[in-house]
Amino acid sequence: MYREDLKQRFRQFSIRIVKMVDSMPRSISSDAIARQVIRSGTSPYANYRAACIGKSDKDFLNKLKMVEEELDETAQWLDLIMATDMLAPTRVRPLYDETLELLKIIVSAIKTMKGKLDNNL
Fold it and tell me: Against a cut of 0.85, is the pTM above it?
């Protein structure tokens, strides 16, 4: 997958996160979770864009690790939203699945970059 394609995929993912959060019911617990998931769910887009303009391979790798952490956190919040029925699981599941798919892509990119850096030593 090309970097520009992945940037657009992260952009669409962020838009879906925003729309999901805006549709959550208002309560103390959902407001708290909404704040968390809006941060973790939109930051991969910004962090991936930053990775693409990284100054070095190490910088790129470090930013990819940030993307990985934020995606993992987003998956955790989406799982909690489904488990507590804050939103219908059938509505959240496709976004959760996309989170896991993006996470797999980023983990693969991290492994590739680590291998590249190890071979350059």
Answer: yes
